[in-house]
Each structure stands twice: as C-alpha cells, then as structure tokens.
Design brief:
The chain is mainly beta and 549 residues long. It contains 5 helices and 32 strands.
C-alpha cells in the first residue's frame, strides 16, 4: 500500500514491533439486519496504540476520500487521503479524555470474550458500549470508548449496531507515515475532507446584478438587459448515475432596497433558435406567443425551432439585506446575507457532461442593485435512486429580459391562458410537470396578495389544480431590514403572498401526468388573473419542464 502508507514523511513515533498485535473485524447492522455489501471496519491494536481502518483501505480498493485514525495514549491522529497525491491530517489530545461514561453492571460474551457495558449520551443519541479487558489492549471502531478497553460492540439508539465478528493475533501492524509538523487544525481538516466528497462548480462569485448603462460584458461573464442578467458558459462534468445535484445562491443588497424576483436558468441550445439569440439580438427576435389579448409575449413557449429557458431556481430577494442593516429596530439583529439552496437532481439529464449557458436574473432598476454568488454541487450516492432521465422545457413566462422590453406574464387574462404543443419521439413513463408559479401585482387587490387557482390541462383534460400560497413570510423578518412597517404592527415582508416571500426560494410543484405515448400533446395553464386597476396590473411567472423516464 505505498500510495496510502507512505504519503507522509515522518513515521508516527511509537514502536509497534515486539508487541502482541490484534486485528479486529467489525460489521454494521441496522434495525436487526446486517447491512449488505458493506466495507468491514478493521481495528489494529496492541499495548501502545490502535489504528482504525477498513477492509477496502487495507486491500487498496477504497475510493477517495478515505480516513484512518491512529490512537496513542488517548491522543488521536486522523489521516485522510483525498486523492492519490493529496493527504491531510489533524491531531486531537483532548476529546477522548473528556468522554464520560455511565458504567453498567450487565455483562455478556462477544466472540468469546467477557464484556462489560457502558453508556453515554451524545447529541441526544444513547450509545451503549460493550468492552473487554481480557486482552490487555485498548481500541474501538470509532474514537468513542478508547479509554475503556477493547470495544467489541457499539449500539446507537437500539437500531444501529457495530459488532466485532472476529479477533485475530497478527504478526505485522500496518504502518502510517505521518509528518506531525504538517497537521492541520481540526476545522480546516474537516472542511477539506467534506469538500473532497463532492464536486463544486463555481458559476458566479460576488457578482453585481444592477440596472446601469455602465454594466458591460467581459471575457468571462456576459451582461444583458442593462446589467440585470449575468450569463456564463460552463462545462458540467459527467454526473454519475443516482447523484444528487444542488444549486445554491447567496444574495446581498448592493443598493436596491426592494424585494425582487430572481431566477437562475439554463439556456437550452438544442434547436435552431435559443434565448441567447434574444439576449444578443433583441427580445423582438424571439418567437411570439399570442393568447388573443392583443399583447405579444416573447420567447415563453416551446416551438418546433425554439426551447424556452429551463428555470433551475426561482428566488426572491428580501428588502435590502446587508446594505440597509444600519436601520435599527428594538430586538432586531439583521442577517448579513440570504442563502438559497435547492435540489435540482431531476434536471440532471439537461446538464450532464456538456457545456451550458447558466444565467441569473434579478429584476431591479437600481444602479447598485444586488450582489450574488451561484454554485452547483454534485454529490455521489451509495444507494442509487432512479432520477428523471428526460427533461423537456415547455414554457417559462418569467420575463427575465424585463429591463430590455420583454412583456410581463399578463397572458392569463384570457380563456386561452398559456397553451403549448409538444411532440414526443418516444413513449415517456412516469411523466411529471415540474411547475413553478408565483403571482405578482403589488397593490392591495393585486394577485401578489390575492389567492388565485392554477389549473393544468393535459391534452384538453384537467389533470391538476391548486391555489399557490405562502403564509410563513413572517419567518423571514430578520432578512428584511428595509421592509415597510404599518400601523397595524405588521411589516410588508410579513404578509402572505402567492407562493413566495421576500427572502425565500419558491419550490417546484410536481404534477403527475402518467405514461405518455409518443406523438403530439398539449399542456395548458389557466389562472384566474385579476383585472387591471388604472396603471396597476397583475401577472404570473410560471415555468414548466416535462420530466420522466
């Protein structure tokens, strides 16, 4: 095991020769059943020290990253191999000594050795430990219980058990070479180990989204609609089957005090025309949707030659977080930033192993605007759960080019509403519509504050209806320093809204469509949109992606 055992330069300074060495094999059980296809835990122990490893590591079959732990005189050294060429370590001389166990009178035999029982409660978990002093050595499958003796069984909450299945005398004790002068503090070690377990793709870092003629593109980031859209072309690596994919966004006000619609989106490039054409050549170049109300809606529905934006996340900025934290109210300590994080695994097929344009929009008319960071993270899963293998963007009425003339989503004031026709080249099983909807119109009778039913039709038959509404907006008060306060004791950010709150993500609704046959189909969305009042109007931002297998 040269890659593993010789990654550090200084031999951990305890002689292990001339000692009686033991190898203990442990297996894990859950709810009374042995976990299938598991990697056995191995502990090597003698009178001087112990080593916690695993069968896969010892046999050089473990995937990176992996950890091993050396315990000597109740001090422990954790060593993590992040890759073939990078290894890190940290040491701790306090944790084991601070473990306080309640010793019990019960005894039993495990693999032929007399064991005593001890109990400890950690983070509301009751852990029972069975240990033996028959062998005159100490060790355990974790750092817990190292000061008791040789731990042969650990039982957590009665439903997860690690039990020794074999104790063997061995001649040779595995050697780890560790340079103790190059160990890291424990927080840095844990952070590096954690980050090595998944792939992180940084898309935007502290980028300003504002409204200004001075907002210009550069070699890395494209800016459109007077700076209210930022866009970047990135390479998404191959995503292993069953992986979880997340998107996260952080936002701070950089001058704008208002709650604004935000969207992270991907531009499909699978057809003759794309939304990128509209960004580069003007919104009038995008296909027009006509619902009969006299307005033209640019680039919002799928056509034979055009795919609309795939919305990865819909989020809403709070009222002036960070920039307006100087506003003081009794017993209010404002948050410094708002973080949004969402699982987008069902869209993996649209992202997997290709170059894609990822953009972020925040509608605002402020020169300072907002500051955002956006990342995608990819997390492998041991247990593979089937994800949607198919994703077709059908519609997106969120007018991300609002500041470049794209029409608001006022199309639901006609009986037709939104109607899109699409063609499936093959049968689609377990089809679902990934549907995001939020209502807007920020006056007393506007659809932002009035519940309205959304109805979905598949091939002219109603398949789903609901009234999207959020009543928990008051939970986000500390993200909203610049929110208006009213004589009735409420803040503007407290008020319930049509499926959104200032400072939160709007989750998709997944609408079951069943198995769809190959051929032509239609999806129609109808909403009871409110009437105009003077210059005030209501609108709805809806996006839909067809997913399935």
């Amino acid at each position: 095991m040269k890659t593993l055992f010789y990654s550090f330069l200084f031999l951990f300074s305890i002689s292990i020769f001339g000692q009686t060495n033991y190898k203990i094999t442990y297996l894990k059980s859950s709810n009374g059943k042995l976990i299938e296809n598991q990697d056995a835990i191995l502990v090597f122990s003698n009178e001087k020290q112990s080593l916690i490893s695993s069968e896969a590591i010892i046999n050089e079959k473990s995937e990176f990253p992996f950890e091993q732990t050396i315990i000597t005189n109740l001090n422990y050294l954790q060593v993590a191999n992040l890759s073939k060429i990078k290894t890190i370590a940290t040491k701790d001389s306090t944790s084991i000594g601070k473990q306080s166990f309640e010793l019990q009178s019960e005894t039993k035999k495990i693999v032929g050795y007399n064991c005593k029982k001890a109990k400890i409660i950690i983070n509301s978990n009751t852990i029972e430990i069975w240990y033996t002093n028959d062998l005159k050595v100490k060790g355990a499958p974790t750092v817990l219980g190292q000061n008791l003796g040789l731990v042969l069984e650990m039982n957590r909450n009665g439903n997860f058990v690690i039990t020794a299945t074999k104790v063997e005398r061995i001649k040779q004790f595995p050697i780890l070479k560790v340079d103790e002068n190059k160990t890291l503090d424990v927080l840095t070690y844990r952070d590096l180990l954690w980050k090595s377990r998944f792939t992180s793709i940084s898309i935007f870092k502290d980028e300003v989204i504002n409204f200004s003629d001075a907002s210009k593109s550069n070699d890395s980031i494209l800016r459109f609609a007077n700076g209210t859209i930022i866009l970047k072309k990135i390479k998404i690596p191959a995503i292993a089957k069953g992986s979880q994919v997340f998107i996260d966004v952080t936002e701070q006000s950089n001058g704008d005090a208002y709650d604004r619609t935000g969207s992270v989106f991907m531009i499909p490039m699978d057809k003759k025309m794309s939304f990128l054409d509209g960004l580069q050549n003007g919104v009038k170049t995008l296909p027009i949707y006509d619902n009969g109300n006299g307005k033209q809606y640019q680039g919002i529905v799928s056509t034979e030659n055009y795919s609309p934006l795939i919305e990865l996340m819909r989020f809403f900025t709070p009222f002036g977080i960070k920039q307006y934290n100087t506003i003081q109210l009794k017993d209010k300590i404002w948050e410094e930033r708002v973080s949004y994080r969402q699982d987008i695994s069902e869209l993996t097929s649209a992202l997997n192993n290709q170059e894609v344009y990822i953009g972020t929009f925040i509608g605002n008319y402020d020169k300072g605007g907002h500051k955002v960071s956006v990342n995608i993270t990819i997390h492998p899963e041991e247990e593979i759960v089937a994800k949607a293998a198919f994703a077709i963007p059908l519609f997106n009425s969120t007018n991300v080019m609002e500041m470049a003339g794209q029409e608001y989503g006022t199309l639901f004031n006609s009986d037709k509403g939104l109607l899109v026709t699409f063609t499936l080249n093959s049968d689609l099983k377990n089809a679902k519509l990934r549907y995001i909807t939020t209502g807007h119109g920020g006056w007393e009778n506007g659809d932002e504050f009035v519940p309205k039913k959304n109805t979905i039709y598949l091939d002219e038959k109603e398949v789903f209806h609901f009234t999207p509404w959020r009543e928990d907006c008051g939970s986000y008060r500390l993200y909203n320093p610049a929110s208006g306060n009213f004589p009735n004791g409420l803040s503007s950010s407290d008020y319930s809204r049509s499926n959104w709150c200032p400072g939160m993500v709007t989750n998709p609704t997944y609408i079951d469509l069943g198995d769809l046959k190959a051929g032509i189909h239609t999806i129609q969305v109808k909403i009871l949109q409110g009437a105009n009042e003077g210059t005030s109007f209501s609108s709805w931002n809806v996006s839909g992606v067809l997913i399935g297998n």
